C-alpha cells in the first residue's frame, strides 16, 4: 500500500516531489498558501503585459528531461523550447554592448574585435575547462546524497576537487585567465543567480558560466511558469491533490495542522517551504542552527508603451565599479551607488506577452536582504537609478511607463515567506554548499524531509529538480518507501 504524503509548498521542487511519489503509487497532497503553483516561479500580470514572476532563465535541461522521462513522458511533448541566441546583451560603462552567445566562433570574433586577440585565443580553452569542471561537479558533487564525511574525503572525490581547482576563488580564476576587465565581469556575474558575490564564490561555480556559454539559455513558450504548471498537471494526472490557498500552521509527528485548524495525518511530510522558515515557524523543535542567507532583489514589472529595440530578451547592465557593487551588497549591506541589474523583455521571443508595440519590461536589481533597514525611499532610489541608466543605453522613456508593480525584500518575506526576504534562499558560500549544505532530512522529526532551494543541492530550477531526485533516493535509503514503482492506473506505470 502507498504511503500518505503531505507536501508543504507548490514550488517546482515540491511539485516534482509530488509527481515522483504519486507516480510511485503514494497518496500525495500538496498544500500551497498562495493562489497559484510555482513558488518563486509564478506568473505576474501588470496591465496588458504578462511576466515571469521569478526565474527568467532556463538552463541545464538534463534535470528537466530526466524528470519527464522518470514519469514516462517526453519534455518536448509538454514544453515548446526556444534557444535564446544571443543569450543576452551586456551593457558596460563607457564601452560598446557585448552579446553573449553559445556560438564559440562569434564569441571569439567579438572578444578579438572589442577587446584583444590574446583573450580571444584563450576563450575556447577556457570554455573547455569549464565543461570539464561541469562534468566532474554535477554527477559527483551535486547529484549526491551525502551520508557521512567520507563521501567528501574519499580519494576519488579529493582528486576531482584538486584536478579542477574547485575550491579556488571564482573571481581570481577568471582574472588570472583574461586581461580585459570586461571579461572578468562577463564570466563571473553568474554567481549572482545564487545570490552570491563572485569574490566569495568557490571556483566550482564556474559551472554556471558553462551552462550559459556551453549549453545556452532556453525559453519555454508561454513563460517559465509553464514548467511548474506542466509538472503540476503531471502530478495531478498521477493522482496527487493540490490544495491552493491552504497555509500550514505546524508540522506534527503524525502530519500537519493547517491554519484553519484542520489536522491532516501523513506518514511522510515534505517541506518545500523556505528551509529557515520551516525550521523557525513550522517544526516542533529546538532553535535551529542559524543559516546564512543570500541577498535579496528589488523587482519591477512594467507595462511599457514602446518597443525598446536596443534591448534583447535578456540583458545585463553593469555599473562603473563591479567589485564595489558586491561590497555594498554583501559587506556594507547598503544600496550600491551605481547598481548593476538585469532586465528582460520576453515579448522579444514570445510576442503574446505584450500588446503589439508595447514591452513587458522586467527589472531585477540585487539588493541587501532585511538585515538592511529597507525603506520605501530605498525602492524609489533604485527605481530612479535603473530608469536613468536604461534611458542612457536605450530609447527607454519613463513617461511611457503605463503601469508598474514592484516587489521589495519585504514583499519576498511577507508574500512568499522567504526568511529575511532572501530571494535566492540561503547563501551558497563554501560552508553552505555540497556536503555542508543542510541535508534533505530533518534532524528533529523522523518523518520530515526537505526539498527545494535551501536544501541540497541548491538554488535554481535545475537544482530544485535534482533536489526532488535526491529526496526520492533518500526516502528509499531510509526505508520510508520501497524501491521501484508501484502500479498506478492513472499513469500506466509498471513495476
What is the element layout, followed by pairings?
Layout: E1 4-8, H1 12-23, E2 27-31, E3 43-46, E4 49-52, H2 62-70, E5 81-84, E6 88-91, E7 98-100, H3 104-114, H4 117-142, H5 150-153, H6 155-163, H7 170-177, H8 181-186, H9 206-215, E8 217-220, H10 225-237, E9 241-243, E10 248-252, E11 255-258, E12 263-265, E13 268-271, H11 275-282, E14 296-304, E15 314-317, H12 322-330, E16 341-345, E17 359-367, H13 376-393, E18 401-407, H14 409-416, E19 448-450, H15 461-477
Parallel strand pairs: 1-2, 1-13, 2-9, 6-15, 13-19
Antiparallel strand pairs: 3-4, 5-8, 6-7, 10-11, 11-12, 14-17, 14-18, 15-16, 16-17
Helix pairs in contact: 1-10, 1-15, 2-15, 3-4, 4-9
Q: What does this protein look like?
A:
The protein is an alpha/beta fold and 495 residues long. It has helices spanning 12-23, 62-70, 104-114, 117-142, 150-153, 155-163, 170-177, 181-186, 206-215, 225-237, 275-282, 322-330, 376-393, 409-416, 461-477, and strands spanning 4-8, 27-31, 43-46, 49-52, 81-84, 88-91, 98-100, 217-220, 241-243, 248-252, 255-258, 263-265, 268-271, 296-304, 314-317, 341-345, 359-367, 401-407, 448-450. The longest helix is centred in the first third of the chain and has 26 residues, at 117-142.
Amino acid at each position: 500500500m502507498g504511503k500518505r504524503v503531505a507536501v508543504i509548498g507548490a514550488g517546482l521542487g515540491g511539485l516534482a516531489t509530488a509527481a515522483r511519489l504519486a507516480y510511485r503509487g503514494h497518496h500525495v497532497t500538496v498544500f500551497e498558501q498562495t493562489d497559484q503553483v510555482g513558488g518563486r516561479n509564478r506568473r505576474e500580470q501588470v496591465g496588458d503585459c504578462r511576466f515571469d514572476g521569478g526565474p527568467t532563465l532556463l538552463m541545464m535541461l538534463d534535470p528537466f528531461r530526466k524528470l519527464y522521462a522518470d514519469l514516462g513522458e517526453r519534455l518536448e511533448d509538454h514544453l515548446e523550447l526556444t534557444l535564446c541566441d544571443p543569450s543576452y546583451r551586456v551593457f558596460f560603462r563607457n564601452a560598446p554592448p557585448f552579446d553573449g552567445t553559445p556560438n564559440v566562433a562569434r564569441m571569439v570574433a567579438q572578444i578579438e574585435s572589442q577587446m584583444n586577440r590574446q583573450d580571444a585565443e584563450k576563450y575556447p580553452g577556457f570554455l573547455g575547462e569549464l565543461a570539464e569542471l561541469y562534468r566532474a561537479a554535477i554527477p559527483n558533487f551535486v547529484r549526491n546524497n551525502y551520508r557521512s564525511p567520507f563521501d567528501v574525503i574519499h580519494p576519488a572525490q579529493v582528486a576531482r576537487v584538486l584536478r579542477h581547482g574547485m575550491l579556488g576563488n571564482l573571481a581570481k580564476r577568471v582574472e588570472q585567465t583574461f586581461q580585459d576587465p570586461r571579461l572578468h565581469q562577463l564570466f563571473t556575474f553568474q554567481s549572482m543567480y545564487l545570490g552570491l558575490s563572485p569574490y566569495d564564490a568557490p571556483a566550482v561555480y564556474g559551472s554556471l558560466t558553462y551552462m550559459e556559454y556551453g549549453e545556452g539559455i532556453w525559453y519555454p513558450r508561454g513563460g517559465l511558469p509553464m514548467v511548474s504548471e506542466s509538472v503540476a498537471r503531471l502530478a495531478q494526472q498521477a493522482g496527487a491533490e493540490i490544495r491552493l490557498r491552504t497555509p500550514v500552521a505546524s508540522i506534527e509527528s503524525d502530519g500537519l495542522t493547517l491554519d484553519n485548524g484542520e489536522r491532516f495525518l501523513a506518514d511522510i511530510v515534505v517541506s518545500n517551504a523556505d528551509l529557515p522558515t520551516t525550521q523557525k515557524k513550522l517544526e516542533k523543535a529546538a532553535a535551529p542552527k542559524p543559516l546564512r542567507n543570500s541577498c535579496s532583489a528589488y523587482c519591477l514589472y512594467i507595462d511599457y508603451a514602446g518597443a525598446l529595440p536596443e534591448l534583447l530578451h535578456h540583458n545585463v547592465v553593469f555599473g562603473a565599479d563591479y567589485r564595489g557593487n558586491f561590497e555594498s551588497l554583501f559587506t556594507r549591506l547598503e544600496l550600491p551607488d551605481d547598481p548593476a541589474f538585469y532586465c528582460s523583455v520576453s515579448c522579444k521571443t514570445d510576442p503574446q506577452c505584450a500588446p503589439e508595440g508595447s514591452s513587458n519590461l522586467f527589472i531585477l536589481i540585487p539588493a541587501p536582504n532585511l538585515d538592511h533597514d529597507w525603506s520605501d525611499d530605498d525602492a524609489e532610489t533604485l527605481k530612479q537609478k535603473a530608469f536613468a541608466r536604461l534611458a542612457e543605453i536605450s530609447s527607454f522613456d519613463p513617461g511611457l511607463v503605463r503601469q508598474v508593480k514592484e516587489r521589495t525584500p519585504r514583499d519576498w518575506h511577507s508574500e512568499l515567506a522567504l526568511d529575511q526576504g532572501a530571494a535566492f534562499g540561503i547563501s551558497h558560500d563554501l560552508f553552505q554548499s555540497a556536503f555542508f549544505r543542510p541535508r534533505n532530512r530533518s534532524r528533529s522529526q523522523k518523518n520530515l524531509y526537505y526539498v527545494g532551494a535551501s536544501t541540497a543541492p541548491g538554488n535554481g530550477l535545475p537544482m530544485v529538480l535534482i533536489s526532488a531526485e535526491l529526496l526520492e533516493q533518500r526516502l528509499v535509503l531510509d526505508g520510508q518507501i520501497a524501491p521501484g514503482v508501484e502500479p498506478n492506473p492513472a499513469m500506466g506505470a509498471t513495476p
